[in-house]
Amino acid sequence: MKLLRPTPPRPGRNGPNGPDGAPATTKPGVKETAVEGTAEVVGWLDERTGTSSFLRYFLYRKVPKGTNWFYTLGTATLFAFLSQAVTGVFLAMFYEPDPTRAYESTSRITNEVFLGEFVRAMHKWGATVMIILIFLHMGRVFFFGAYKYPRELNWVIGVVLLVLVLTMGLTGYLLPFDQRSFWATVVASNITAAGPLVGPYLADFLRAGAEFGPTTITRFYSLHMLVIPGLIIALIGAHLYLVVKLGTTAPPWLKAEKKDLLREEV
Amino acid sequence: MADESPKFDKSSRYTEDRGIAGAFEGETVTRRRLMEGTVLLTGGIATMAFTLPAVGFSLGPVFEDTTPERWQDVGPTGDFNDESYVPRVINLVPEVGDPGKTTIYVRRFNPERDKEVEGQDNQPYVAISTRCAHAGCPVRYIQASQKFVCPCHGGVYGFEGTVEGGPPVRPLDRFYTRVEGGRVQIGDRFSLNSDLKRYSPRDPGAHLDGLWQYIYPARPTT
């Protein structure tokens, strides 16, 4: 913080040459100017936004003893999501959600676009990695008992996020529009329709009609890149807010150091 | 100061009686509360004004059937007999190109062995959909055994498309048929229960028999 707030002038200390000494004669170098300038800009922003106090609160939280590598799985999932978001946005620049153009444009991404194969593979394999990470994260929370009071709501939000991510998998699977994705979607919507009472309506909503029609693919595309990601981002925000607010749990194998004291406090 | 004055009645519905500063006679809602309500109501109306149409827009296809009635030509009447099925390809959804195509099996109606489809107009031809009534996989007709067989989960259907084995919950769907100028034409899909009673088109997996049929409602459009 010293960088951000220069020491105010004090009587008897006029310059770098000591108390009551002559002022500095050498001009500050380029490096000093750059450092000072950056600090000034950062300070200006911070004074108006309170970013540094937020970041201090957000990143420099106290964590319980015994926190280990398993606690990084949630962050790993978050970064898998960010990777999906970024690669997805760039894939959307070349992809055309039209039944007659979807396969063509996908194969163009794979075969012709510069780094297209790489970005598409990142998105495709990243989806699998994200699902695996989510289940590992869920397992960590379950086996460490981190879902218990007062964190039940965060578990519920996490389950909703899991369902949303699986829905992302379902809607994204159709988009390459090859035989496999087409029939997978046909069967998936038929399975949806086999659900009692609401099933048939839900399937018609997914397909935009009774049959796989011309707007099914645009509907899946819109769900895949706008509706569900929006919900996921909002819920990740709530998830993280609760993590920061409630803190993390110690691993279950760690016993309270002063048992008697604990009992007294309770 | 309100506590010191005995004439104020906190449970009264009038703001004047409750001792609120600036209260009018006969006023029951404070102006602050009224403004709060107005702001919330306005915001709520504004939000609903764009949310409800958007939701209705996305739910539209459930309640509105925009597909026109189509009759597709599958060949002259001489192409078909009443002993065996002839495969034909029709396009259910021409707008999507190849994915909209589907195979159907067509034969002439045989009054000696066929059961009349209850609720269906007199149709001289039988056009069977290849969409399995279990999960929607494409079934294939095998002439040697005179059965339709599904490759996915082993559903087996007899010559008339009624279930003979496996997981399917109802017979294979059919299409309306008609003859125009010596040529057979195929119309819309309809579903059947195990008694070959006609129903509006249902999705695979939707039961049409017994109590089960009541938890699989028909489409609002039919």
Key words describing this protein structure:
heterodimer, A: 266 residues, mainly alpha, Cytochrome Bc1 Complex, Chain C, 2 domains, two-stranded antiparallel ribbon, extended, B: 222 residues, alpha+beta, Rieske Iron-sulfur Protein, 7-stranded antiparallel β-sheet, 4-stranded antiparallel β-sheet, 1 helix
Task: Describe this protein's structure.
The complex is a heterodimer of chains A (266) and B (222). Chain A is mostly helical and 266 residues long. Chain A folds into two domains: 13-54, no CATH class; 69-251, Cytochrome Bc1 Complex, Chain C, CATH 1.20.810.10. Chain A contains ten helices and two strands, in the order ββαααααααααα. Chain A has helices at 30-49, 51-59, 73-91, 102-111, 116-143, 152-174, 179-193, 199-207, 216-246, 259-265; strands at residues 13-15, 18-19. Chain A has a two-stranded antiparallel sheet with strand order 1-2. In chain A, a hairpin with a 2-residue loop joins β1 (13-15) and β2. In chain A, α4 (102-111) crosses α5 (116-143), α5 packs antiparallel against α6 (152-174) and α6 packs antiparallel against α9 (216-246). The radius of gyration of chain A is 27 Å and the shape is extended. The longest helix of chain B has 33 residues, at 31-63. With 222 residues, chain B is an alpha+beta fold. Chain B is elongated, with a radius of gyration of 31 Å. Helices cover 15% and strands 24% of the residues of chain B. Chain B contains one helix and eleven strands, in the order αβββββββββββ. In chain B, the strands form two sheets. In chain B, strands 1, 2, 3, 4, 9, 10 and 11 form a seven-stranded antiparallel beta sheet that branches. Chain B has a four-stranded antiparallel beta sheet with strand order 5-6-7-8, with no helix packed on it. Chain B has two domains: 1-64; 72-215, Rieske Iron-sulfur Protein. Classes of the chains: A mainly alpha (266), B alpha+beta (222). The A-B interface holds A 99-100, 182-183, 186-187, 189-191, 193-194, 196-197, 199-201, 203-205, 207-216, 219 and B 58-59, 61-62, 65-67, 92-93, 95-97, 99-100, 135-137, 201-206, 215-217, 219, 221.
